[in-house]
Amino acid sequence: MPFAAALLDLDGTLLDTIPDLADASNAMLAELGLAGLPQEQVATYVGKGTPNLVARLLQARDTAAGRADPEARFREALASFQRHYHQCNGRRAILYPGVVEGLQAMRAQGMKLAIVTNKPTEFTLPLLRLKGLDTYFDQIVCGDTCAEKKPHPMPMLHACKLLGVQAAQALAIGDSLNDAQAARAAGVRVLAVPYGYNEGSSVHDLDVDAIVTSIEDAARWASEH
Ligand SMILES: O=C(O)COP(=O)(O)O
Ligand SMILES: [Mg+2]
């Protein structure tokens, strides 16, 4: 039976968002009086959502022992990151090659399309609009849509329900262990792209059905399975 739907990850799969995420990260660190981090290091902290990214940035830089109120420090850092990311979100982000072709091909194959991202809604919707991707998707599930984020299966299952398809008829496409684990736990088949951010690990170690070179290649794989 052909796939009825594709569940697409956003950061590291459709868009290279690291330049903007690194700019916002370093603006936040500077505001807190902390040294910046190279883009490649920030990339290894992306994948489990914005609060997790901020917590890892603080862990890397905010070593002041015995800080009186670490919770207040975290809230300050998160608010600063959010303010800066709203300013630079989409400014330097670029579409990976084959994304538009792949989305068009999947639509032409009759597949429904959903975004399943850990990025919060407040950043996801303007980013999709800015990059001209908003018209391709029937549903958008963000990091704050469900009670749990990927690697929990809940966002994948929620997307299937919104699309009106069974998990077994859906195909997830992502760049990280968060996508692979969420899909496996949801009973959704899953492809990985090798060009994204897998928290610093190789995609070749992921439990996925195949590694594809692009979204266009994923559309081809879907039409053949
Ligand atoms: O916001 C993140 O941490 C990652 O987002 P993604 O799920 O689209 O890769
Ligand atoms: Mg990703």
From TrEMBL:
What does it do? Answer: Specifically catalyzes the dephosphorylation of 2-phosphoglycolate. Is involved in the dissimilation of the intracellular 2-phosphoglycolate formed during the DNA repair of 3'-phosphoglycolate ends, a major class of DNA lesions induced by oxidative stress.
Q: Which cofactor does it need?
A: Mg(2+)
Enzyme category, top tier? hydrolase
Task: Please state what the protein is called.
Answer: Phosphoglycolate phosphatase
Provenance organism: Candidimonas humi
Which lineage is the organism of this entry classified under, starting from the top rank? Bacteria, Pseudomonadati, Pseudomonadota, Betaproteobacteria, Burkholderiales
Which chemical reaction does it catalyze?
2-phosphoglycolate + H2O = glycolate + phosphate
> InterPro entries from the xrefs?
HAD-like_hydrolase_sf (IPR050155), HAD-SF_hydro_IA (IPR006439), HAD-SF_hydro_IIIA (IPR006549), HAD_2 (IPR041492), PGPase_prok (IPR037512)
Active site residues according to the UniProt entry:
9
- According to its UniProt record, the EC number is 3.1.3.18
The positions annotated for binding Mg(2+) are 9, 11, 175
Q: Which UniProt keywords apply?
A: Carbohydrate metabolism, Hydrolase, Magnesium, Metal-binding
Family, as annotated: Belongs to the HAD-like hydrolase superfamily. CbbY/CbbZ/Gph/YieH family.
This protein's pathway reads: Organic acid metabolism; glycolate biosynthesis; glycolate from 2-phosphoglycolate: step 1/1
Q: Which GO terms label this protein's molecular function in UniProt? A: phosphoglycolate phosphatase activity
